[in-house]
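My main concern about presentation is that the manuscript never shows what a single data entry looks like. In essence, backbone conformation is discretised, so a fold becomes a row of integers matching the chain in length. An entry of this sort, consisting of the sequence and the corresponding backbone structure tokens, reads as follows:
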Amino acid sequence: MDYKLNAASKKNKGINYNNYYIENPTRVKTLVPINIYKTTDFIPKYVKEEVPLDTYFDVNDVEFSFDGYPRLKIKKGYCSANKIFVQQVSEESREESYDGTRLRK
């Protein structure tokens, strides 16, 4: 277990980290409409924008909220690392830039 996860898990023992990306998935797509936040603490006043499902993002890092929840650091801010809301996609699936661009197939 890496240092960041170990420190975060001590803050909130009720989080099931199996439901989250705790290592950088590199690239994700949204499975539902989600919010992008200015900080790792998901408070309504910190919402930057809402993005629709099937929005693709390059992930720069995984950071943790004050309460220990994993967050994906993306170019536009932070989004959920919850596997219910985002799904890792492979390099081969990349058709164009994923930073907030909605791809239609």
Summary: The radius of gyration is 13 Å. The mean pLDDT is 84. The domain at 3-91 is CATH 2.30.30.40 (SH3 type barrels.).
